[in-house]
Amino acid sequence: MELPAVLNWIRRPDYPSSGRRDVPAGLWSKCPRCATLVYRKELERKLRVCPRCSYHHRLSAADSLALVLDEGSFEEHDEGLVPDDPLGFVDEQPYPARIEEAQRRTGVPEASITGTGAIEGRGAVVDAMEFGFLGGSMGAVVGEKVARSAERAGGRRWPLVLFSASGGARMQEGALSLMQLAKTSVAVGRLGELGVPFISVLCDPTTGGVAASFAFQGDVILAEPGALIGFAGRRVIEQTIRQKLPDGFQTAEFVLEHGLI
């Protein structure tokens, strides 16, 4: 039914759509802490720290290395090491399928990037873990890369700078993954015997077997503000000890207050 002319004013006008522009995806990033929308380029300029609440967004392995190394100085090592499937592990999908998906999503072959570079003109061996790759879990390849990095640092008498970001040992590799705790601990321990500095940088999160092995063996231990740092999860600990844990437990600030960094 046609509206009377006197009521035409309540009709919604047909605005032309030709002048509208689609906003490209990925221009904005939402802060997980304060929910502020931050222009992504502005966030990158601030080294992925929220300008409103100072929340530190997670960095990729490549981002971590780019922050500390002199431009153009990085040379990657051991990039040809790729994970195998020694147990034929299958959960919701085969382990090789998970590896392929992680490689496609992150653009890296494994959960760490290792190499050499310069920091303020001085040589250093570097290793940065990629949390986006199966939670930065440590399997045989990640453990081998840590061990080789330590050996390279010892051979060159260059400091080892290692960025940890991991949920722990990789369950798909079973006992082979657990073996890496001892292997990496021994490897970085030898640096102390040689008098070679080991700088451990704990990124968000550093937990499980990585926290229980090489991450806390540094001569100098640094941490990202607000990073989750610990061995077992909060819920597991509370159920085990049957006590409520304090607020801020397993944060970088809590660990600093108690002398672990």
Overview of this structure, please?
- The protein is an alpha/beta fold.
- The chain folds into two domains: 24-57, no CATH class; 58-257, 2-enoyl-CoA Hydratase, Chain A, domain 1.
- It has helices spanning 40-45, 61-68, 95-106, 140-156, 174-194, 208-211, 234-241, 252-257; strands spanning 28-30, 37-39, 75-77, 112-119, 122-129, 160-166, 198-206, 220-223.
- Helix 4 runs parallel beside helix 5.
- The protein is globular, with a radius of gyration of 24 Å.
- The N and C termini lie far apart (75 Å).
- This is Acetyl-CoA carboxylase carboxyltransferase subunit beta.
- GO terms for molecular function: acetyl-CoA carboxylase activity; ATP binding; transferase activity; zinc ion binding.
- Pfam families: Carboxyl_trans (PF01039), Zn_ribbon_ACC (PF17848).
- Its EC number is 6.4.1.2.
List the helices and strands and how they pair.
Elements: E1 28-30, E2 37-39, H1 40-45, H2 61-68, E3 75-77, H3 95-106, E4 112-119, E5 122-129, H4 140-156, E6 160-166, H5 174-194, E7 198-206, H6 208-211, E8 220-223, H7 234-241, H8 252-257
Parallel strand pairs: 5-6, 6-7, 7-8
Antiparallel strand pairs: 1-2, 3-4, 4-5
Helix pairs in contact: 4-5
